[in-house]
Amino acid sequence: MIAAIQEYFADLARCTTAAWTYFWFRASDAKTLSILRIALACVALLYILGYTSDLTFWFAADGVMPVARVYEITGITDPEYGAAYWSLLYYFQDPTDLWILHAVTIVTLLALAAGFFSRVTAVMAFVLVLSYAQRSPIVLSGLIEPLLCPLMLYLCLGPCGAHYSIDAIWRRRAGKPAIGKTYAANIATRLTQVHLSMFFVMMALSKLGASYVWWNGAAMWNVLARPESPLVDFKFLRSSPLLVYAWTHAMVLFELAYPVAIWVRPLRPLMIAVSIPIWILYALASGNWLFALLMLVMNLAFFTPLEVKPKSEVVETNGKAEAAADRIPAHV
Q: Which DSSP string corresponds to 187-230?
């Protein structure tokens, strides 16, 4: 009996270790990461462009939020609080300097989307986007920054310009071999997937624990009733409260189900399909279309393009025809 128990736990440890190693520490193709580079760079560009009309109004030395005021609000100068909100924009307060930095940020994000010196522009883009996000706490949307900034950081960890990029074109024309499977690409992609899943868990738990309106189904009506928010007028739903209740509960159930079901391969297409109307309706109701767009494009973190191999690359092993090892993506 004792020997059987010991063998069970030994097998459990071996299987757990093997699964953990396979999940995190195996070489994988960078196509998914390259797609994420394009998508995140475009969303970040839209985020930065949103500051254009009021750039000096907020961030200039004589603007609404001078650096000294930010220090006061965030508690940076309070030794007991110990806050740290570093931003490159602290050093650019003259209007001319602000516009130069803003132009550099836009060009950097365009270069990252195109895959131009992507290992360098990925780091630059992360620093610049983070600087905007932390420059003024009262300008933040509260939703997009906690997700966008870490995802931009993960792009820096892997070869995000290995595919669909100017870098890849130059490498091919120079006769250099393409970037194959790497451990860095797998780690960067896995961090993105796990972070997105945990973000869904956070959103669901915050809804269930913060207010009773998510339990009684009235939360979405609170969103719809704000006159400055909706992109579409949903006041006609006043005569159909059951639809509002169903909408509210559907949001919570979706956010609870997504971080679990997205890891189950047969359920993955279903969850991605369901997310499309969920986030489109949320954007129309709340007006927070940029966050909804980010949540939609982040479905790409669980997508790997299939590479069709020619028959000449099919090899025989033990009398059975097997495709080359990278024919089928091995994402869990």
A: HHHHHHHHHHHHHHHHHHHHHHHH-THHHHT-HHHHHHT-TTS-
